[in-house]
Write a structure and sequence with these properties.
- 54% of the residues lie in helices and 6% in strands.
- It is mainly alpha-helical and 273 residues long.
- The chain has 3 domains: 106 residues, Arc Repressor Mutant, subunit A; 71 residues, no CATH class; 67 residues, no CATH class.
- Helix 2 packs across helix 5, helix 7 crosses helix 10 and helix 12 packs antiparallel against helix 13.
- It is globular and about 70 Å long.
- The relative contact order is 0.13.
Length: 273
């Protein structure tokens, strides 16, 4: 990831703005109904890049230069991704990333509390008639807020909200099971597929394409981002111009090896638990 950003932005990516340490303020910045397209809204309104990659053991947040980046594992469980994204945003907002260390165990509870306040604010919870709510009502609320049955159950308990028997029964079910029984299956599958898709920020892809087309970056970076064979990437071939040939050879020689990436992850890619 670091090598890809360096190839796209040799002078460093544009810095992310400082995030508010107040969940209500951040929620207002994100706007109404933000959770349905959470990653895109975070990029557009908060200036934080969101990447989705398969086969990660956990979700991460890190900084490259002054650019805040959240890396999520691809999963059809969109509610998990929503919580993880909010949790990682909390690490930035609460200044758990700094020059000396990465988020530690003591930072996890505050980040989870921030996530609960952002996704399930107390005033939104209090607007609902939980004593009269039925199963479809719970499913609709989960769909709109983008959280899991477990997250809602914990939030209701922490706020000491009294609920109906139907709510108790609904929250004992798994989130996919409850939603599938009470929602449009096509919309559910679309949301699952979007959460499971491999995605990179458009600003990164655009910058890489421009530099590769100019012969200033290795096409292998762009091939990795687009998840295609390098042969499918248009790349200017070297000509007899000695300066161009030299530049081409420097770009190819600068390609990171598998060992380089493993070493970087070992020293810099500590996951936020």
């Amino acid at each position: 990831m670091a090598a890809t950003y360096e190839a796209a932005f040799p002078e460093g990516p544009s810095p992310s703005a400082s995030l508010p340490d107040s969940a209500p303020v951040m929620r207002k910045m994100l706007g109404e109904h933000f959770v349905r397209y959470f990653g895109e809204v975070v990029e557009d309104r908060l200036g934080v890049d969101v990447v989705r990659l398969p086969m990660l053991s956990t979700d991460y947040s890190l900084s490259i230069g002054s650019r805040a980046i959240v890396i999520l594992t691809t999963t059809p469980n969109w509610f998990r991704s929503n919580w993880s994204l909010t949790h990682e945003l909390a690490h930035f907002a609460l200044k758990h990333h700094n020059t000396d260390s990465e988020p530690g165990e003591g930072d996890e509870a505050p980040a989870d509390q921030f996530a609960a306040e952002l996704l399930l604010p107390e005033d939104l919870i209090n607007q609902q008639d939980w004593r009269q709510m039925d199963e479809p009502g719970v499913a609709k609320f989960l769909w709109q807020t983008g959280v899991s049955t477990m997250a809602l159950k914990n939030r209701l308990a922490s706020l000491e909200v009294r609920v109906s028997v139907e709510v108790v029964a609904a929250l004992k079910r798994t989130t996919p099971n409850l939603i599938r029984a009470n929602a449009d299956v096509r919309e559910l599958i679309t949301r699952q597929q979007q959460s499971a898709a491999r995605i990179f920020p458009t600003v990164l892809v655009d910058a890489l394409q421009r530099r590769v087309e100019a012969g200033a970056a290795s096409p292998e970076h762009l091939a990795w981002v687009l998840d295609v064979p390098v042969d499918e990437i248009d790349f200017p071939e070297p000509t007899d111009d000695s300066d161009f040939v030299d530049a081409y050879e420097r770009v190819v020689a600068a390609r990171p090896s598998h060992g380089d990436l493993e070493e970087w992850l070992t020293t810099n890619g500590q996951p936020a638990q």
